[in-house]
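Exam prep: given the inputs below (a chain plus zinc ion), describe the expected output before reading on.
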Amino acid sequence: MDILKEVTNQLGSVITDASFEGANIVLYTDNENFFKNGISDIKKVVNNLKKRIDLRAEETILMSEGKARKEIEELIPKDAGIEAIFFDASRGVVIIEAKRPGLVIGREGSILEDLRRKTLWVPNVRRSPEIKSKITESIRSVLYANNDFRRKFLNEVGKKIYSSWNKDQGEEWVRVSFLGGARQVGRSSILLQTPNSRVLLDCGINVAAKGEEQYPYFKIPEFDISKLDAIIISHAHLDHVALVPYLYKMGYKGPVYMTEPTRDIAALLALDLIGVNYKQAKAPLFNSKDIKEMVKHSITLNFNGVTDITPDVRLTFYNSGHCLGSSMIHLNIGNGLHNLVYTGDFKYLNSKLLNKASSDFPRVESIITESTYGSKNDVLPTRKESDDKLLDVISKTLKRGGKVLIPELGLGRAQETMLILEEAMKSGRIEKVPVYIDGMIWDINAIHTTYPSFLNSNLKFRIFRGDNPFLSPIFSRVGSMEERKLIMNGGPSIVLATSGMLVGGASVEYLKNYAENKNNSIIFVCYQGVGSVGRDIQDGRKEIKIDSEGTEKVLKINLEVNSIIGLTAHPGRSELISFFNNLKPRPKRILINHGEISKSMDLASSLYKMTKTETTVPRIMDSVRLR
Ligand SMILES: [Zn+2]
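Solution:
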């Protein structure tokens, strides 16, 4: 029997409808008394099944939207600052957006419970963002406008997850195949297969590469897009997510799992990539319609919640400390048969922006780890040394009347750099000059303030207190080419601009103007991919060929070049070692990816010596049987 029938049978005729929302079971009732008091009956059923079950009221018994709105405004204290109320009648859910969600919820949820009993709507509370994010608003409106689609889609996802419920699973094996990001950085993508599931972990683009080398290798016989059950995205950087809209274009119709900030930032960066492609006179791989499909098919999860995603795979996201919403992916496969952790990109140190990555898991047999800075030589300076170097270079440059350009990835380090600059100017450590923010960064700041619960504790409380550092007057947003020209012709200043590797984007425009003046400085704070303009400059090239309005131009590099590796969002060698020292429980197998070959190999041999655990560095196209 299927699981929905089993639940409805146990509860009887008070249940008018039962459906799935992904892995959750949702029951509907038209019996007011059962809606108010039936929770204990449901708890009994839940205890038998160990599944999450939500109870909602049928549209026929819901209080009218007008009356319910009045009730909400009366019950919730004025100080809560309600900014918007959305009714989703087909699901019996009302979303309340407020400045102070705690006051909406009430002590131990008392206000919400009152609201539920009085109006029969199920209330959901959301913090209204301090800086409005256009992308978050448009994503929410896409989801809202497609309510009916979402209800059907989530029901279909649930049906697949529970398709072999209570059935013998038969044979047992687990294998992973590397489609990209193995013995290299960029185009990360791993296919996980079991007898019942095919799940893709990440699907990125190598922006520094050319031709086919940009994309994961989909031609391996194991990969069949029509048989893919789910995609899981670790974080929103292009080398992990940029190709997902393309998979929807190619006919994928299943879910993509990620955190809410990852969804919003991924959509923003994918839209930006289309623009960058057009500027480079390249045909984009996908268009905005495909990004919308990704959003419509997204299922967002918070950290530490366990969710079934296929009949034999259970997913949990853990904080990875790398960028907003970034996760380590824990997969419990075959009901405890095998547990796999894929670290994605992580940072094992607290930063001004984020808490450090988790190293505690319920179980781990295999782990796939990144190794960006995995070699013995990758001794990162301490945070303090790095901050000091950054501020010293800036100070010196400003004193000689120069301008500072910091190319940033948009997501992650740009916000960290902003926090360092804000603090340094406040304390008088560096001269107060305008800090210009160009490219994606501003929109991503807005997403940071939309999801403060993903930020580190200090910053979160600063934002809750109304002291949001991203709103400091030292920061100005650059909106047009005219404004850019004023900055280029103006006095000493600091520019933070995307892209981080000087591959298209605003940062290249500033480089063209700043490069030949030796008073200026460029400071690299993020990883520079092999083949990128940033890498060439970092490696000391004095002449760079650059694309200028369709024609190639040679740019003389006279400005001061600095790299501050200690500000990276990746773990340095000693962080990697301490992560594996602290990792609980001890894995039986370590697989190493996301690193240039020498770094991955070096880390592998050290980890093997240290842990005596089987350690391998798979190549692209390699498949490894985990169980
Ligand atoms: Zn990353």
